[in-house]
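Lab notebook, bench 4. Continuing the backlog of folding jobs that were queued last week. Each job is logged with the same field layout so the records can be merged later without manual cleanup. Today's entry covers Olfactory receptor, a 309-residue chain. Filled in by technician R.K.

JOB TYPE: sequence-to-structure
TARGET: Olfactory receptor
LENGTH: 309
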Amino acid sequence: MGNINNITEFIFLGLSQNPEVQQICFVLFLVFYIAIVLGNSLIVVTVVSSHHLNSPMYFFLSYLSFIDVCYSSATAPKLIADFLVEKKTISFVGCMIQMFWVHFFGCTEIFVLVVMAFDRYVAICKPLYYTTIMTRRMCGWLVVASWLGGFLHSLLQTLLTVGLPFCGPNKIDHYFCDVHPVLKLACTDTYVLGLIFVVNNGMVALISFLVLIVSYIIILVSLKSHSSEGRIKALSTCGSHITVVILFFGPCTFTYIRPSSNMAEDKRIAVFYTLVTPMLNPLIYTLRNEEVKSAMRKLWTKKMNSDGK
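JOB STATUS: finished
OUTPUT FIELD FOLLOWS
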């Protein structure tokens, strides 16, 4: 069975078969994707351009914004284009490549969020050692470790999926190539492999989520010893992180911690963590952060002055 593979392309069933709904979704998701690219790119440009935003917190925030753009770009352009065509196809090779990028960027984002929580823990709970621990070298290594972790995670399950036999049918009940819907099309027993994927995906998300929750509980408890001004500033920063963590990890953990039984439900939930959360992240971080808003205003003023000259 391992050598049987007469599938050269897959067909996505997409989010809806209704032409009117697809037209509405085309406009809606196009707006979402443009907002994701512009909003997150603005944060990256602002952090890179501003001398005031040179702390590790903003260094990690710029990487999170960059990953959000990459993560959404792995699914959104294909999804948006498919709303305009009746037959939504993707080649077998293209499907495996898309699966790799989705899980590579998704897992990397998980690790970056964990790193950001560690940064806040050191800043609030170990303030005297913050500059000693969170050096530029340490920050660089933490980012590299996040990328490497995401790469190994994605490479493992992509290689396992590529080795499966596919002999039909070839219709994927989703809008992008994900492990669970693709696994259902393999013409062999995939029960054990399905469990491996649940552990590989679900446990990474669940353990990371628990680590984040515990770290923020420790941070909140330690704030009792801070001044009221310091407490308000720390709560504002941590509040943004906690909001992003809940929005991303909630639906993501729900999808991957169990074997999929309802694909229609799973693909609707997937819209939330592949498109909605990356779109909301820039708003969450800028609306609650005066330093970022101030840097954006200065960047805009500088651009206007240069254009006026």
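OBSERVATION: The first strand starts at residue 9 and ends at 12.
SIGNED: R.K.
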